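INFO worker-7 received task bundle
INFO bundle size: 2
INFO processing item 0
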Amino acid sequence: MSRATLRSAARLSWLLVTLGSGLLAAPLAPAQVVALETDPGPVPLDGDTPGDAAGTADAADVAVEDALIAEERAREQRYVTWQLDIRGVDAAQAALLRRHLDLARYESLAEAERITRIELIRLLAAAPAQARKLLETEGYFNARVSTRIDETDGTAPVAGDKPLALKVGLDIEPGARTEVGEVRLEIQGPLAVDAEAGDADAVALVERLRSGWTLPQGSPYTQSAWAEAKAAVITSARAQAYAATQISGSVAQIDTAGQRADLFVVVDSGPRFRFGTLRFEGLDHVRPDAITALLNFETGEPLREQTLLDFQDRLVKSSLFDNVSVLYDPDPEQAGAMPVTVRVSEQSMQQATFGVGASDLSGPRITLEHLHQRIAGFGWQAKTKLQVGRSAQSLSLDLTSHPQPGPYRNLIGAALTRTDASGLRVTNERLRLGRTQDTERIERLYFVEWQRAMTRDLNSGLMTDDTKAGTVNYHWVWRDLDHPILPTRGFSLSAETAVGRSYASTDNGGFFSRATGRLTGYWPLGASWYGQGRVQLGQVFARDNVAVPFTLLFRAGGDDSVRGYGYQTLGPTDASGSATGGRVLGAGSIELARPFSRSTPAWWGAVFLDAGNAAERWSDHKNAYGAGFGVRWRSPVGPLRIDLAYGDLSRRWRLHFNVGVTF
């Protein structure tokens, strides 16, 4: 019962008691009856004067009213907490309301902020209007909202300073959702002029902007989708050389009765920006021509965002810089020749690194590496690397020029390696001279090479082969991946070819050729599963009596071949059981993986099946199989793989460990 009702009831009760007592105590004279009928004021009790009775009644009435007011004021000033119950909406709408309603935001703060009941009532009174405004942002323009408060214990005494706990609710009827009706996208400015003049790029961009509109007719209207659609138009136009594009006008006409939103947008393209001069910041020991050699555009070309990103990627891949940014300030006054700033942070002139690790090839290993960015004052990098492992050791020196037009980089390399595998100790000496070209998706390597491969039986210590060869080589890698280091979708294809002549100490030398190819695919499977497949083929073409260096022949087995077997333990052997290289190779793999949980997206579990082998000829080829399971950690530097695999021929489990992606 409200405070006003309580006061009125108290006054009426007091009046009835007073009147009833006076009428029963003394009969009224005719004159008194008339007075009563005309002025029903306070009637004195028997033995009291009229003035005394009136004073007593007024005092009692005031006392009751004051008590009620005091009680109501005390009740209004009580501290409260509450639980908010929202009904009639789906989970997304309820989440929106709980995130933005004052009534919801103060729910968790009520006790700490010492919110009173009267303040809660104010919040509750404002909630319907707030809720309707929030639902309008989601396209519900006819929502009905009512509030409720459960005060069944509102008058119950509360010990000490403990707040009163209440239940508060919103009952909502959101109504029908508004859908997009007519959409008009008008293009103004130089883009429209160019398109009308028949410029092919401008016509294609206008069509792309209109066909790519993300809030088409019939789709649900929301304020966020409306804003995102306009932003997408701006982003798309700016990426295609119109860097000053903006929305010059937009209207969303809402028909609340018909649940329809008609959209009208005017896009002002601004001028088409073109490449101007390059400005360099941060250069010290790297010459500017090393940067200009990597340019993928010419002065006067349209300044497209993707062109800049590709140029920036080339600079990053050059291994000359720690940080690279390519940027410009889109000033319409300079649109015809926009200056572009290349801001870099160079790598240290000299770098030395020390590493420890393990792999199926080398076992435990340590690595020492030194990099000089500009050897002897020339534009060449020098990279020296020493790796010492239990079953593999190597020493290499690679000289690589700074980028040159093309973009190409010249290279000179020398390496000495020794590997123990399959009962053999293989020593390889190599000299290489060539050049490389790296673009956004394709890597090319051209080189001539001289090498010498010596094999020695680990049991007898006898030399089993000593073959030299000179070759002309071409390596090619193509990638179309969603991420260069941690791919989950796309393909990569690599191919290697070589033509040369061998010189052998034990067999006949002669001409030969060699070709290998490897296709790797990545694809998502549903919400959280991912697949990976690999196929690898290789063959050496030569007469049977022509010797080929062991390092150019094929063996299978290991982390990146057929798991469940040791490195290069699969392939043909001689009469004594020592490994010999095969002239054909066929291998493949299929793998399924998924994250362990949403809270640990970098950690995956995987199952896999590998198959493959090397042989003297295809008629002798017979697959060996390996199957197992493993753990993946998708680290920033590449995936770390730990696998446990069982080989059907070895009949044993084998642990494999690897880091990185092989193309």
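INFO item 0 finished
INFO processing item 1
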Amino acid sequence: MDMDYMLDDGAWRLLLESVAARFDELTIIRGFQYYKQGRVEELALRDDGVHVDARVKDNRMYDVAVDLNDLAASECNCSANRVCSHMAAALMRYAELCNRPIQALVNARTALKSATAGGVARTGAKDKEVAAEATTRTSNSDFGNRGAAPTAPRLDRPVLTEAELTELSVEKWHERFQARCGPMHLHVRTAQDASELIADLQAMRPELPWALEQLFTFNALMFVLERMIKPTHADWRQSGLFMGYHTQLAIDGLRGQARSLLEDKLALAGESSGYWDRLMETADFLRERMLTEDKTLGCFSELYTSFWLYWLGPGSAGSDVLYEVELHKLQAAEAALGPSLSRLPWTLAQCLLLLYLSRDAEARALLARDVSKLMLKLEHLAPLLGVLERAEQWALLRDWLAETGPLIIGFRSEDLAPYGDYWAVVVEQLPEAESAMWSTLQAMLPFSRTVYENALAAHGRWDRWVDLQMCMGQDPLSFRATALKPIEKDAPELLLPFYHQAVERYVLQKNREGYKAATRLLKRLAKLYARLKKGERWEQFIAVFASRNSRLRALQEELRKGGLLS
């Protein structure tokens, strides 16, 4: 340990209390995710020993300055304007350098709450001692830091040893989870409730080999997620109630933790591992929940996909034999579940496995067969398209984009932006795919309008771009000047009909605002004709235009103000 990073017990206790007082649960959870993902890229303790400077990567790099004596005085150049997840991540990295348990920081609020609920009536230094003891107990629930030392749990509550976790089925794990939490956690509704329950479940286990810890932590998250979803699931099916805001935030936080865990490399070597059966039982757990999940929730279906993308993907513990077995189980579920089958995730799961097995034509046929029932969105197809992109199978990706594009129409044009990004990558790698891109995007109009416009602009197809705007009745004044600059430079003659059409529309409005807009466009037209060296043609046009609209006195006034008439 670097001697610059020393933190005595008293300072550590005060830091825990400050974190509990200043940070909410969601901020701590997000900070822990950033810390686990290695986003704290730089950290240094100043000479005064109380200020920590760090750089944390999020959507961009953020500079953090933490005051250990007064967290409220800490600063970050993000938009939070208060203590934020970037500060929390920096504190966790600092605690790691000081050889302090990260999980104690993660559970600081829980520890403080537990100490208060335990009936502590003493004040001053004695209060701090009791809170510190509660923190020490809670710190052993390290679901991300493997270095924490286990503490003996209460004898009247179930625990799990390493031998039991190896031998018992995952179903038995969940039964022990249920026995552990008892009736206290029948209704998990907030991020704090979820964090407290996860910490309590983690306290059940000793320090484990990393592979077994990964499986245990993932199942603990799934157990809590199911506790949150089941009541909501029942409410939605029976009475149409919607999910509460704080519950949705908590569920999103749990899903984020689970995805982050799955993105870590699985520490199993393969089927020879002693934990292989537990991995397969976890896959069974996810499949069962996914296949009966209401389509409005989609939690387990997303995690099922991530599970097979990362832990059981071709680059991890997956194999063709395993994919064939899972595919058979999915196909058998259709007859077993009947009308209760969630068809969309069931179909997408099969498509992913078929891609792994190089049976992509079957996958596309499966999607096309039930497209009217599935209500496909681009987000549903993104994992499948991502598999092809990462494998650099450009011809297959072209075929998938061409065939699935018409299946996802009916949604906002802006939502299809990633679809256009896939086409851009394919055409860059496979130039002959450009004709397929144009025909597909045209067939998807008007839903693909934004994607089509961007592609036309990127490829300099200004004639088609202008034609599209005119067909859509677009107003040239609605575009920023910078958007039309490339056309004015490369093909100014293409803008003439676009501007002329808009001028006539504005005049037909027969009001002052319309005449002002028409005048602005006419001034642009004058510059275009001058650039094209067709000044005589412009003079003829403006004379005829003014004569034809001579009875519109307001328009004549605006033309004179604009210097278009003498």
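INFO item 1 finished
INFO post-check item 1: DSSP finds 28 helices and four strands in the chain.
INFO post-check item 1: The CA atoms of residues 492 and 531 lie 8 Å apart.
INFO worker-7 idle
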